[in-house]
Structures are given as structure tokens and as C-alpha cells.
Amino acid sequence: MKGLTICAALLALFWTGAAPAQVITPSLDPSVASMGPAATGWKTEDVVALAYTDRTGKREQSGVQQYEFTGSQSDVMLALTMEGAAFELASSNQSTGTKPEGVYDQPVPISNKTAQANLAIQGNDFFSMGLGYRTEEKERWLSQSYPHDRTKLTYAGGALSVRLGESFYVGGGASRVREASDLYVDNNWVESQIGLAMLFGQPGDTRFRFEASLTQTPKALQNAAADRAPAAHPGSDLQRGALELEFSGLLFSFQGDQLIERVVTVDAATGQTSSQTESVSSRAGVLWVPEMGMSLGFYFGNQQVKQLYTDSFSDFQVKLGYLF
Amino acid sequence: MNNGLKLLLVGLFLVVVPKVNAQVATPPIDPAEPTLISAASSWRFGGSMALGTDYGYQETQATKTDAKVTGPSALLVFSGKEVIWEFYNKSSDTAYEWDSTSDQLYQYTRSNQQLNLSVRGEGRVSVGLGAIARSDDSRGIQRKQSGFAGSFGVRIGDGFFLGAGMNRVTEKVADFEDKQWNEYMGGAGFAYGSPEKNMFRLEVSGTSEPEVSGGTSLEQVHHKRTRAIEEMEVLWHNYLVTVRAVQSKSFAALDGESDRQENQMRYGLGLRSLGFSWILYRTLADERVGDNWYKERYYKMTLGFGFL
């Protein structure tokens, strides 16, 4: 049981990729689903979109390469806007072709599925208030004894975004997160977000958007019960930033984030320790975004996860959307 | 693997791709030529269908191949108001690659398919996506490459164009671990005039591919490559004259290899009238490694029909 507890703490960070920074304002790329439900309220486009991502990477520890990661992800999203309200649905399915080996005792991600729904209302072009529901199902290889560890996270929450003057936005929100696992006791905590943004220009004109946000979760521990191990969620800080420029329908998008989980991890085999887990991601994209009709473009990105080992990923995404 | 075979594989450092396209920022005036990045195809003057083929020989210090037809290709372009589709196919391109160490020629068979989709916005910007499928079979090593491409272009003023893009390529070789890399392309071009009358086009572009190494055998390595391409086309009263220079460099990755550089010149002369085109090209490619030398001498003919 103690070993499993350590694993639970080790594995909070998963193969997530760059998190989009749409917490209080939506991306200028209409085919990106908003992370915060309040951002959905500022959407102006009805859109349906598909995306496919090719993702590769490797894991190294003490200068030794342990794994080559290959994988892919498919995404689909739908956004509908009405007078004073907006609705978003999004889903993604990520899988890896990596075959874990028993010689290394670190966890290996196998699949990750997410689904989310946001509903928001907008008042007098002054505020946006939204509700969001999101599920995330992860499967990972822990060891030869536990080759398929499944965890399901459920997020339910609300958020508010306020427009100050013509171009400035501030806002925040909170979500109740529930974690259910085959191996560990159910756990729960509250995730809080704050952000500020600048958005200049109107759809069809030259536009510029900047957003920075911080998402925090507290440490959450649950004691063992029945035949399941104690659960541990480490406290975390996630900083996101986005910079977007659009002219003549050509959109350049840059996003970056840094996630730090305050968890001490110990390699049982070597005695090596790591005082925190850090993930740094960056992503850039170029898209054609008309006022109506077909939207298309591509993104490319990198991610590095450091703890006892270092995971390095790169990805390339192509996406097609239709604005109606 | 014995040392002799290893040396042979190491020595068989692939000749850089001899027949390249230079259409990164702007499409060619010859409607039979494909674009290198999908965003460039959005500046085409309309749809087209075309065929092309090469005829020529390769020669080393000790060997000269028989002149023969190689590399038949086909191009199909559908052009809507804003959306452009382009499909290019070059299959069963059978020729020889030069082993600079032993000065031998070894037969290969290559194919290349590319599907491009691009959108032109407001006559000033373009964004494109593409799908790639390539194969290379030589000396018992079968490489299959597949991938996606993304690119964009900008038109500044009446005739100045900028373009850039990347291909995300995955290579599979038998049971070896798959290799992935990104190919980067960028270029600047100037195009002025009408393809039905008089037109001038000038483009300078470059491409870069990184080294990917998963081991010490040739199957596990993708060599770093760079290319610089300069091209000029002049259409004068339906007569087309083109000149293109390509400097390709392939960098050593395995023991016993050395960097290689190939210089290629291509000259073209032909007619483009009432949408029909008939262009004859002459390609001269030369390479030298130590005392060994290698050259290619090809003619290429394209037949096309562009519907504006």
C-alpha cells in the first residue's frame, strides 16, 4: 500500500501537452475550446472543427534513454452562440503506441480522453458568467503488476470574466475536482483560476490578444479504505500565457505554460529524489480564420517534463474547421 | 554485421534528392510543376492538369548508365474561388544512387505523392495543409515516409511574396524504430504579369532537415540536409525561359562518412499559350568527393493544360 501511495503522488502529472490559455477570453482561433467557461461567453463564432495531432517523445533518466514515445490525438469541438449566450462542446482522445517494459519502474502514459461542456451568458457586453463540466480519463502503465491503472477526473465549476473599458478583461473561477481510481481511494479538491487579458480589434479586422492566468490546486490526501490505497494529490501551480495576432484572416498564435507540482518523489531503485515535478510547454500555430467558411491551420509544439526522469515531447497538429 | 558490409552501408551515403521543386513562396509559371509547400499553390492562376517525365543518364568515373526514361509524374490542381486542391504523384522513379566511397552506382526505386489543400484570403494571405507519402527502396532498405504539412504565405504589394512551412515526417524502415523529424522551408519571391501574356518570376528559397539518429546503421539514420534554391522564369509572348540553381548539402552522420554537396543547374525553354504548355528542361547535376566524381544529365518534358 505504501508503494502505491508513492505512485499516486508520482503520477499526478500526466501526458497532457500544452494547455490552451483561454481562461477568461476565448482564443482568436475559434476552433480551440475554452478552458474557462466564462471565456466561452465572449465567443462570437459558430464553429465545428476537427484536429489530428502527431506526437513523439522520449524519456531519459541519468543520461539513459528509457522510452521512445509515439502517439496521436484526435479532437473535435462545436461552439454555438446566441444572443447573450454561448455553448461549447469538445472532446479529445490521445493514445500512445509505446510498449512499457518491466525493467524501468516509472509510470508510462497509455491513453487520455477528455470531454467538456461549457455554457455561458453575457451581460451588456460587460461580463460573462459560465458553468463548465469536464471529464478526463487516464490510463497508464504503472508496473508489470499494474499494467492498466485507470483514473477518472471530473471537474464541475463556474467562472466570471469582466470587461473593463474597451479591451481589458479580468476574471476567475473555481471547480470541484473529483478523482476516482481503480487502485486508490476517491479523492477531491478545489481548483481555482484567475486571469487577465487584453483583446484589441473586432472580428474581420486586425486583432491582438494577450492573456495570462494562474491555476492552483491544494494538496489533498485521503486515507486508505477497504482494499484501496491512500490517495494523494500534490498542490500545483499552473501558469499560462497566450499571445495572438490576426490580420487579413491570417492568425499567428503562441502559447506557453509552466506547471509545477509540489511533490517529493523517490526512486526506490537508486534512492534519487526530486523535490518537484515541472512541466514546461510551448506551442505556436498559423491559421486561416475567415468570418465565415472553412478555417484551417496547423500548430507545432514542445513539452518537457522534469522530475526523476525527463520526458521530452514534440507534436504537430493539423486542423480543419467550418464557421457558420 | 561484418566490417566490410558496414563500410559498404556507411559508404552508401544517399545522394541528395536530385530533382527538387523550388516553389515555396510562389507557384511556377509552368502549370505542370508542383509547389513545394501547399500555401504557395494558393497563388496559382487556376486549375491545371499536367504530365512530366525525365530522360537521361548518370555517370561516375568508372560507370555510365544507359540513357532511359525515368520519373513519370502527374499533377492535378483544382482551384476554387478561395480553396485550392493540388495532387502530385511521381511513381516508380527508378534510377541509381552513388556510393561515393566505392564509386559504385546502386539501383533505387522511389515514389512521391503529395496532397495539398490551401486557402487564399483576401488576395493577401494563404494557409495550407498537406499530406505526404514517399517510399525509397534501395540496396534492400525500404524506407516508407508519411506525414503532414503546414504552411503559410503572405503577399506584400502587387508582386512580392513570402512563404514558410514545415513537414512532419515519420519514417518506417522494416523492424527498426520509427524516426520522426520536421522539415522546414522558407522563401521569398517576386512575380509580376499574367501567365497568358508576359510574366516574370524570381524566387529564392531554402529547406532544412535535421539529423535523426537511432543507432549506427544506415537504416537507423536520417541525414541532416540543407538546400538553397534560386529560380527565375520569364514568359515573353508565350515563350517561357527558366533557369534554376540548387545547392544541396548532406551532412555526415556515421563513421566513415563525409559531408557531400551537389550543385545542380536546370534550364528550361517552352511554350505556354491558350492554357496549354509544353516545356523542355535540361538538368546538369555534379558532385565531387575526393578524387571521385558523379554527374547526372537529364532532359525533362512537361505537358500541361491550365484552366483559368
Give a short summary of the structure.
With about 325 residues, chain A is mainly β. Chain A has helices spanning about 1-10, 35-40; strands at about 45-60, 65-80, 85-95, 110-125, 125-140, 150-165, 170-180, 185-200, 205-215, 220, 230-235, 235-245, 250-260, 265, 275, 275-290, 295-305, 310-324.
Characterise this structure.
The complex is a heterodimer of chains A (324) and B (308). Chain A has 324 residues and is mainly beta. Helix content of chain A is 4%, strand content 64%. Chain A has two helices and 18 strands. Chain A has helices at 2-10, 37-40; strands at residues 47-61, 64-82, 85-96, 108-123, 127-141, 149-164, 168-181, 187-200, 207-217, 220-222, 231-233, 236-247, 250-261, 265-266, 273-274, 277-288, 293-306, 310-323. Chain B starts with a helix and ends with a strand. Chain B has helices at residues 3-11, 38-41, and strands at 47-60, 68-79, 83-99, 104-121, 125-138, 141-156, 160-173, 179-193, 199-209, 212-213, 221-222, 225-236, 239-250, 260-273, 276-289, 292-307. In chain B, strand 1 and strand 2 form a beta hairpin. The longest helix of chain B has 9 residues, at 3-11. The model of chain B is unreliable at 1-18 (pLDDT under 50). Chain B is 4% helix and 66% strand. The radius of gyration of chain B is 19 Å and the shape is globular. In chain B, the strands form two sheets. In chain B, strands 1-2-3-4-5-6-7-8-9-12-13-14-15-16 form a 14-stranded antiparallel barrel. Chain B has a two-stranded antiparallel ribbon with strand order 10-11. Chain B is mainly beta.
Topology of this structure?
The complex is a heterodimer of chains A (324) and B (308).
Chain A: H1 2-10, H2 37-40, E1 47-61, E2 64-82, E3 85-96, E4 108-123, E5 127-141, E6 149-164, E7 168-181, E8 187-200, E9 207-217, E10 220-222, E11 231-233, E12 236-247, E13 250-261, E14 265-266, E15 273-274, E16 277-288, E17 293-306, E18 310-323
Antiparallel strand pairs in A: 1-2, 1-18, 2-3, 3-4, 4-5, 5-6, 6-7, 7-8, 8-9, 9-12, 10-11, 12-13, 13-16, 14-15, 16-17, 17-18
Chain B: H1 3-11, H2 38-41, E1 47-60, E2 68-79, E3 83-99, E4 104-121, E5 125-138, E6 141-156, E7 160-173, E8 179-193, E9 199-209, E10 212-213, E11 221-222, E12 225-236, E13 239-250, E14 260-273, E15 276-289, E16 292-307
Antiparallel strand pairs in B: 1-2, 1-16, 2-3, 3-4, 4-5, 5-6, 6-7, 7-8, 8-9, 9-12, 10-11, 12-13, 13-14, 14-15, 15-16
